[in-house]
Structure formats: C-alpha cells, structure tokens
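Q: Given only this backbone (408 positions), what sequence would you predict?
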C-alpha cells in the first residue's frame, strides 16, 4: 500500500524521499524491520492472549527429558508468524505482482488448514486433529492453484540468455543480453552441463505430441512438492527453535536466489535464469524471515510458545512455493535437507517396523524414536545442542545449494 502511496506522491508532488520505495532493497529492509518489531513486541501479547484462552499444548510422556514440563505451553503461535509476515507485505510489496499474490494466498490457505488442525486438537480434545485426508486435500487444492497460476498466468515468464553473437548494445548504451520474455517450464537442475530441466520435454518421454500437455506434469510436481515440504516442516517442528531456525536459513537462501533471479545484471553475471518480476518476492521473504526470527525470540529453549500446525504447515507451504517460483524446486532435497532427512527417518522407521513385524512377527526399529531429532534426545543429547547442530547442518546445506548453481 505504501508503495502506491509514495509512487503517487513522487509522480504528482515530487515528494522528497518517495523514490526510495521504488527500490526493492529499501522495501525489503523496511519489511524485515517492521516484521521483526511486530513479532517481538506484539508476539508477547498474542502469547498472553493464548495463555488466557488456555490454548495450551498437551504433551504426551514419551520418555524424553524435559517433555512433560512443556505441557500447557501456549500453542498456535504460528499466528504470530502469519500476521508478522502479511502486515509488512501489505505495506511494502507491489500487491498486483503475481508472485506476491500467490504467496499471500499460500500463507492464508495453509494457515487456515493448520489453524483448523490445532483447533480440533485443543478445543475438541482430539489429539489426532484434522483428519489426514482433509489435510492432504487442502494441500492438493493449493498445489493445483499454485501450479495453474505459475503455468498459465501471462506474467510468469522467463528470459533466456542470448548466444554471444546475438548480444548487442543499443544506441543509448543499454546491453541486450537476454531474449524476449516467454512462457517456459524450465527449472534448475544441479550437476548437469546446462543446469536446466524442461518439463515440456519430459512429457515427450510418454509419447510424441504430448508436449502441449506439460501443464499436467507441472501441476502434479508442484502439488507433490507443496504437500511434501509442508509435511516435512510439520515433522521437524518437534523441539524448541528447530523448525523456525532451520526455516529461517532456508528462506534466507531463497531470498538470495529470488533477488539474483529478478535482477538482470546479477542473473547475467552469475549465469542463472532471469525471471522477470520475481525480485519482488524478496520483500515477502524479508518479512517472512523477520517473522521467523522474531518468533524465535519466544520459541528458543525453553519455549514460551509453540507454533503448532498453524505455523509449521504454513512455513512448509511458503518454502515450497518460493522454491518453485524461482525455479529451484529440484534443489529442495539439498536446501531443505533437514526437512528431508526428518521425513525420511519417519518413513524408514515405519516401513522397517511393518516389514519386520510381517517377517519376524515382531516389529523392530532402526531409530530409538522418530523423527530423527527425537532419536538424538533418546540417545541423551540436550535439545538445545540438537537444535544448534541442526542449524549448522542447515547452513552448510544452504551454502552447498548456492554452490551447486556453478557445479555443472
């Protein structure tokens, strides 16, 4: 909103300083600061309100040190993250940008699913929460919406770098290094020469003439990624500060990729895809990072509030949509490696238990407990040490993700 206000003031009255709002860097920094202030200052009030309403977590005794003491801690703190993200975005972002629209819808939609899940757990005294099929249905619905918008919307385009012999400089000195903006389903794939993968060409593996139906494959992939990452974030939210801290690292990395991909100069210099209009996502990302960092103020050990599914499902959905939007979704297993290994640990544990029960008549376990962070708790590590080490792993994976862009 402020973008449009100051754009008007500059155009009509040449208002001093109004031009600053034209810069993504200024609006991103402002969004981060406002988000951080909202989450830290008003976060405490929200926590007190949740406590007054007796919105407390019921913690089962799983034999983990310090777990039972957390019973009664306010949950549904994801509301803090959602509000602290959306308010600065509404203030500082260009609201008719298609990527911002998709991200706002994702935040609200996943927040509603998580809120319903938490509401059923707390106020209906049903620990199972929202039935799995309804949760998955909600994620699939969002996946279809996001996939359709990214595939069909005319503003979602890509500019490919021209061969050197076709690059030129105009009479006013402007270098023309990229071709015209066009629709494309290309994405980034690591460790290959051209560093690109085309969904449309993949459809031809199923038969010639199927290239025009690439939207089907694209929407299926988008839906799978959103569902997988949101559930992965949900599984990671098990001990104080783990999900919020890990997510901050992932989102900050995506912010770098979004800013570079939306800037024609840096996209050319670093030889990455140039995605027009995608740089605006940096404003949303800055607000989101500010919300996560502010939430950590109250969520680090010992936590004063839990994010609940309201927060974890929303975080996962946003990360998935950001990665898809900057054409880096195939890097998610690396970038969101903590989410990936946490999910994998649960899958391995369940499958091995079922297999051994069928084979030997008694279920056996590979890990002392899953997800993986609970295994380390069972081993005897303090949760603060586990969280810190997972953060370090997350940082290493983030650096590796950026490095893979040049490993071809």
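A: Predicted residues:
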């Amino acid at each position: 909103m402020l973008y449009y206000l100051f754009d008007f003031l500059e155009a009509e009255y040449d208002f001093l300083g109004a031009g600053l709002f034209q810069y993504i860097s200024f609006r991103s920094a402002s969004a981060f600061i406002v988000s951080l202030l909202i989450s830290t200052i008003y976060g405490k009030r929200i926590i007190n309100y949740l406590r007054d309403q007796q919105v407390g977590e019921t913690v089962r005794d799983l034999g983990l040190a310090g777990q039972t003491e957390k019973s009664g801690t306010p949950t549904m703190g994801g509301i803090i993250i959602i509000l602290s993200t959306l308010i600065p975005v509404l203030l500082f972002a260009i609201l008719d940008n298609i990527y911002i629209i998709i991200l706002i819808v994702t935040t609200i939609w996943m927040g509603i699913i998580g809120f319903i899940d938490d509401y059923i757990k707390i106020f209906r005294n049903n620990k199972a929460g929202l039935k799995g099929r309804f949760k998955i249905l909600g994620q699939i619905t969002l996946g279809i919406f996001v996939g359709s918008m990214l595939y069909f919307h005319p503003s979602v385009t890509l500019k490919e770098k021209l061969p050197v012999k076709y690059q030129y400089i105009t009479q006013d000195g402007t270098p023309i290094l990229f071709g015209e903006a066009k629709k494309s389903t290309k994405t980034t794939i690591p460790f290959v020469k051209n560093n690109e993968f085309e969904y449309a060409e993949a459809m031809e593996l199923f038969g010639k003439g199927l290239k025009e139906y690439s939207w089907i494959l694209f929407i299926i992939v988008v839906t799978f990624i959103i569902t997988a990452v949101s559930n992965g974030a949900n599984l990671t939210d098990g001990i104080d500060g783990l999900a919020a801290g890990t997510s901050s690292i992932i989102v900050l990395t995506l912010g770098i990729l979004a800013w570079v991909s939306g800037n024609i100069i840096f996209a050319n210099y670093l030889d990455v895809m140039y995605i027009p209009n995608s740089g605006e996502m940096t404003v949303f990302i800055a607000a989101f990072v500010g919300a996560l960092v502010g939430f950590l103020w109250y969520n680090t050990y010992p936590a004063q509030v839990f994010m609940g599914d309201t927060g974890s499902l929303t975080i996962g959905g946003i990360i998935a949509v950001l990665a898809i939007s900057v054409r880096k979704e195939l890097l998610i297993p690396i970038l969101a490696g903590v989410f990936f290994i946490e999910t994998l640990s649960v899958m391995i544990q369940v499958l091995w238990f079922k297999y051994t029960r069928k084979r030997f008549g008694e279920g056996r376990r590979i890990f002392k407990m899953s997800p993986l962070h609970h295994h380390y708790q069972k081993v005897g590590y303090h949760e603060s040490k586990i969280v810190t080490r997972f953060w370090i792993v997350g940082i290493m994976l983030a650096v590796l993700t950026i490095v893979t862009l040049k490993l071809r």
